[in-house]
Specification:
single chain; Rossmann fold; Alpha-Beta Plaits; 2 domains; 6-stranded mixed β-sheet; 14 strands; about 30% helix
């Protein structure tokens, strides 16, 4: 099956008096049909530039892009009706109601006004639909923006920070909405800084840093490739933690003491922990791998700057190689 979105070797260069800046430096991304795909990166990494270029708002300096199998921007008019998008903060007329706002947008886009109540219901604004937008909170305006992107029942929905301004309940509702849309067959490309939500919502992710891809794949695969290699160790009641930690440090372990346990950061072979301690008459009651979450992976990968001027993606270089640990 043809991917809903394909980006290959995308480049965007800005020139100023300060010199040349590569906002996108050969960036690649693939989004498969029916997925919720997380698009992650620190501020200034090229996320918004990618989305704006994809939607024809910025002209690239090189590379290839395709939406629903059609090359863009050349064929963007042919697929625009099947793409809904919110990029950066949307603006609305404050004196218009949400219902009127969406009705006008439906008319402008050639969409039947019967879609308006349906999308208001989807985003949880039905009961507030006749109130003026200027009375809305930031979170409610975000919901209205999502509703506007859903009007034409797109095959691809692109959302840039849709949870911005939402309270925890609103974030959970937005999470449910994204999953429901995916279950209905819609493909969602979701950019967000709320990494815990991305881990819960998304099927797959792409992480960008300095205009280059640093990793991509299913959430499970990305987490598995970047396990922390650490284990949490608890001992029998009454055992001196400091003494046990000193024993392991003398054997080469990197140990961090906590209140009632310690963590060994470089435990490539956790069995060695039990062996070293047992030789001193100390026995382990718990040995638990410390799983990396998406935030850990994000901070690790985006802290490694790509090499300027090289085409290949960072995750195809030696940077992603295995790390040696204690006891390997």
């Amino acid at each position: 099956m043809t991917p809903v979105l394909e980006i290959s070797g995308l480049r965007k260069t800005y020139r100023s008096r300060k010199g040349v800046r590569n906002a996108l430096d050969g960036f690649d991304m693939v989004v498969e049909a029916g997925q919720v795909h997380g698009f992650l990166g620190p501020n200034g990494s090229g996320k918004t530039t990618t989305l704006r270029t994809l939607l024809g708002l910025i002209k690239p300096n090189g590379g290839r892009m395709a939406i629903l199998g059609r090359e863009v921007p050349q064929h963007l008019p042919e697929v625009a009706g099947q793409v809904g998008a919110i990029v950066e903060s949307p603006q609305f007329f404050g004196n218009f109601s949400a219902e009127l706002t969406l009705s006008l947008l439906a008319d402008a886009g050639g969409v039947n006004r019967s879609r308006v109540p349906a999308v208001l219901d989807q985003v949880g604004l039905r009961d507030r639909s006749k109130e003026r937008v200027k009375t809305y909170s930031l979170g409610m305006k975000q919901r209205l923006a999502v509703a506007s992107a859903l009007l034409k029942e797109p095959k691809l929905l692109i959302l840039d920070e849709p949870a911005n301004g939402l309270d925890p309940g609103g974030i959970r509702e937005m999470r449910t909405l994204m999953r429901d849309l995916s279950d209905s067959g819609m493909t969602v490309l979701l950019s967000s800084h709320i990494l815990g939500e991305i881990q819960l919502i998304c099927d797959s992710v792409t992480i960008i840093s300095a205009g280059r891809r640093v990793t991509s794949g299913s959430v499970a695969e990305v987490l598995a490739q970047h396990t922390s290699g650490a284990v949490r160790v608890r001992l029998e009641t009454g055992v001196d933690l400091l003494d046990a930690a000193t024993t392991l440090r003398e054997a080469g372990a990197q140990v961090t003491l906590e209140n009632d346990y310690f963590t060994v950061a470089n435990a490539t072979n956790p069995a060695l922990i039990t062996k070293v301690l047992a030789q001193r008459g100390v026995y382990v009651s718990e040995l638990t791998p410390v799983s990396a979450d998406l935030e850990d992976v994000f901070l690790e990968l985006t802290g490694t700057a790509p090499v300027a001027g090289q085409n290949r993606q960072v995750d195809e270089s030696s940077i992603s190689g295995a790390k040696n640990g204690w006891g390997q």
